[in-house]
Write a structure and sequence with these properties.
Keywords: ATP-binding, Ligase, Magnesium, Metal-binding, Nucleotide-binding. This protein is an alpha/beta fold and about 550 residues long. It has helices at about 25, 75-85, 100-105, 125-140, 165-190, 200-210, 250, 255-265, 290-300, 345-360, 365-370, 385-395, 420-435, 450-460, 480-485, 500-515, 525-535; strands at about 115-120, 145, 160, 165, 215-220, 240, 280-285, 305, 315-320, 325-330, 335-340, 405, 410-415, 440-445, 465, 495, 520-525. Helices cover about 35% and strands about 15% of the residues.
């Protein structure tokens, strides 16, 4: 492990001062901070807000004005967010756990304040985390959820009781823990090491908010990898592995085996004594190489794996208005005709995995041990979860920025696919769930991604493509993306626009010029791309 930040191009889904993939990174194209003249007007961090006049900047001699009960886009949040952005961004990876652990311990072991469920994988983590959250809340638990990235506001990353944490709580807890953060920074610097990073600090802040709430269970989404991700300071009782693919190879390795091995690190026990000595692994469908590596990693650690296609699976699916009906074979029984207001087979698989994670967490381990394991000790059989509660949880689901419809006539759909696997899932979802007679794609990607790998799948559903670039410093220049697109479409079907606003207007104009319904506009390429489109179309809620 190293304490030197890796300056290589980093993950697609991380906001920070370099302008990575998150709406705030998108808005701060030149590294500008909130509240400065350079901060772009598109910035979703501080949208038009009826509370803004109540929290306007005041003179230093003037007493601070009270925050509204649930403010949004406040000057106080801008202050805290600026402090976070001043730290090394999420593209500057510190492969270490001790710095985050030190801060958590000094704050009273906030990472041990509640049992933990951790999710890693390449695609589907956020959607699955939201589903697990909803299922546990339906069963009467107070849930803290930590996910990344955020689309519009940094506070989206931390949820309590299914709701984005209020800015007043976010600011208050940050101010309370800041002296400890500074103490850890000083210790690190005295040892010649880098201060706490943006993501490390946010992880500590998330744990502190959950301890402050308090919550009954914490659902964590790994930022990148697993072994050295700062979320791994907590020992999870249940560890979920969503589908693993090739992404972030500069940090995780260039093969599925290497990536899977790093992600398996969430099974390590990093607390002594550990509150979860016998973690259970719940594994979504995997490519063969990843599955074999995970199986080997489980064997080395003596961890039991519950596998999609073996211990659980999606039994049936049927299209429904605004979603699908799903039947899941879980560990404890079969749950039939669950309405899921999300599109695509992948979301059904996410739901099945989330359900089994909930089963594993809510079931007595002694009873769970006998499920599908004839060698286990005999005992009273565990009962299936309440089907009505599961149905209620799933029927309330949303997944912002994932096959999300923002408007109609013409239909505008956004999806944060940023790698070939994600684009393939998007293509399958559109073919299955939508009946567009023509599709116009709006695409913007990062320079460190594989544009051809993504465009190969976009070409399967898009008749024409409008290429552009986001406001991020990491954006692939529009001319380079246009050249790449011209290898997949006729040049006359590749249009280029300078920014997302112009690209969206061009696509909408093309659809309306046709004069007939049935043309869809699909915006994709990164979560920054999606965030900008959502903001421009007036959708900043999650």
């Amino acid at each position: 492990m190293t304490d030197t930040p890796n300056p290589a191009a980093g993950p697609d889904d991380v906001p920070g001062p370099e302008g990575p993939d998150g709406a705030d990174g998108a808005a701060g194209a030149a590294g500008a901070l909130p509240g400065t003249d350079e901060w772009n007007a598109l910035a979703p961090l501080v949208p038009d807000d009826p509370d803004a006049d109540l929290v306007a900047d005041v003179d230093e001699d003037e007493a601070p004005r009270p925050l509204p009960a649930e403010p949004r886009g406040t000057a106080e949040l801008a202050r805290v967010y600026s402090a976070l952005l001043a730290r090394a961004g999420e593209t500057l990876i510190e492969k270490r756990l001790d710095a985050t652990a030190r801060a958590c311990e000094l704050l009273g072991d906030v990472h041990r304040s509640a049992p933990v469920i951790t999710l890693t994988g390449t695609n589907g983590k956020t959607s699955t985390a939201r589903m697990v959250d909803a299922l546990l809340r339906e069963h009467g638990l107070r849930v803290g959820r930590f996910t990344s990235p955020h689309l519009h506001r940094v506070t989206e990353r931390v949820a309590v009781d299914g709701e984005e944490v209020s800015e007043s709580v976010f600011v208050r807890v940050y101010d309370e823990i800041e002296p400890i953060l500074q103490m850890v920074d000083a210790e690190l610097e005295s040892a010649g090491r880098g201060k706490l990073t943006f993501f490390e600090t946010l992880t500590v802040l998330g744990f502190a908010i959950f301890a402050d709430a308090p919550v009954d269970v914490v659902v964590l989404e790994v930022g990148m990898g697993g072994e050295w991700d700062s979320t791994n300071v907590a020992d999870a009782q249940v560890c979920g592995f969503t589908p693993i693919g090739l992404d972030h190879q500069a940090f995780l390795g260039d093969t599925l085996e290497k990536i899977a091995a790093t992600k398996a690190g969430i099974l390590d026990r990093n607390i002594e004594p550990t509150p979860a000595p016998h973690p259970v692994a719940v594994v979504g469908h995997q490519e063969e190489a990843a599955a074999e590596e995970l199986e080997a990693q489980f064997g080395r650690r003596g961890v039991r794996g519950l596998w999609a296609g073996r211990e659980f699976d999606v039994v049936e699916r049927a299209r429904a208005v605004d979603g699908q009906l799903v039947t899941v074979r879980g560990l404890l029984g079969e749950y039939r005709d669950l309405f899921l207001p999300l599109h695509g087979e992948h979301q059904a698989q996410n739901a099945a995995q989330a359900l089994v994670i909930a089963e594993a967490f809510l079931t007595d381990p002694d009873r769970l041990g006998s499920v599908g394991d004839p060698a286990a000790a005999e005992g009273e059989a565990a009962r299936p979860l309440d089907a009505e509660l599961i149905g209620s949880a799933f029927s309330s689901m949303s997944s912002p920025g994932r096959a999300e419809i923002l408007r109609s006539e013409p239909t505008v759909l956004v999806d944060g696919a940023h790698n070939p696997a994600g684009a393939a899932v998007l293509a399958n979802t559109l073919a299955e769930a939508f009946d567009f007679r023509e599709v116009i794609a709006v695409v913007a990607v990062f320079a460190d991604k594989d544009p051809h790998g993504l465009l190969e799948h976009v070409r399967k559903f898009a008749d024409r493509v409008v290429v552009t670039e986001t406001l991020s410093d990491r954006a692939l220049p529009v001319d380079e993306l246009a050249d790449a697109a011209s290898e997949w479409w006729d040049r006359d079907d590749v249009l280029r626009e300078r920014d997302m606003n112009a690209a969206l207007m061009k696509a909408i104009d093309l659809a309306l010029e046709d004069g007939e319904p049935g043309i869809g506009i699909v915006v994709t390429g990164s979560l920054t791309t999606v965030a900008e489109a959502r903001t421009l179309l007036g959708r900043t809620g999650i």
